[in-house]
Amino acid sequence: MKALDSPVRYGAVAMTLHWLIASTIIVNLYIGIEMADMARGDPDHITYLFYHKSIGLTVLVLSGLRLIWRWMNPVPPPPHGLNRLIRVSAKFMHYLFYVLIILIPLAGWLMVSVGAQGHATPVFGLFNWPAFPGLSGMTRSQGHPYHEAFETIHTWLAWSMVGLIPLHIGAALYHHYVRGDNVLVRMLPGTRLRRSV
């Protein structure tokens, strides 16, 4: 499999980033939903929060790499015969995904930076991720309104992602089973493109 994208399918780099980001986002959404029902001082909540932060920062890095790779490598064009509504909807959905995969972890980073008074965040216990620049000098009372605002943004964007993922999966299945084109296949490693499309 080639590393670069081609006119007919995604390359190994794009596929790897796509599935890594997808899996880490789904895991982190699950962790976030589970944490919502836990008391903040609960040991399980502390453990979940540790992994939620670590995975979120990982998503932020991977998403940045995905955007850079996308700018450097043109993606395969949409299949022939799509009507205008589907084309516009697909483009909008992809742009929305890119916005969310950056803004959700970014809002989380901003929230943590304010809430921790600028302390670094441990990432899987391997290294410390610094606080967002400019947010390290606030006291808890000064940072509280910002923390609340970032938390609200983070939560609403995360729920938007929860709603968008099934639509994305449904669209991929529609292309594969109803239209019979290569939209899903070209993002799956180890698959062959359909010759008739």
Account of the 3D structure:
The chain is mainly alpha-helical and 197 residues long. The protein has a single domain, classed as Fumarate Reductase Cytochrome B subunit, CATH 1.20.950. The protein has 4 helices and 2 strands; from the N terminus they run αααββα. Strands 1-2 form a two-stranded antiparallel sheet. The longest helix is centred in the last third of the chain and has 40 residues. The mean pLDDT is 93.
SSE blueprint:
Blueprint lengths: L11 H24 L7 H30 L11 H32 L5 E3 L3 E3 L10 H40 L18
Summarize the structure.
The protein is 64% helix and 3% strand. The protein is built from 4 helices and 2 strands.
Number of distinct helices: 4
**How much of the residues is beta strand, in percent?**
under 5%
Kindly provide the name of the CATH class: Mainly Alpha
- Counting DSSP E segments of at least 2 residues, the number of strands comes to 2
Mean pLDDT: 93
Taken in chain order, the helices and strands follow as HHHEEH
Gyration radius, rounded: 19 Å
Largest sheet: 2 strands, antiparallel
Q: Unreliable runs, pLDDT <50, ≥5 residues? A: none
Give the helix level as a range of percent: 55-70%
Distance, first to last CA: 20 Å
Strand order in space, largest sheet = 1-2
CATH fold descriptor:
Fumarate Reductase Cytochrome B subunit
**Overall outline:** elongated
How would you classify the helix and strand content by structural class? Answer: mainly alpha
Total count of domains: 1
CATH architecture: Up-down Bundle
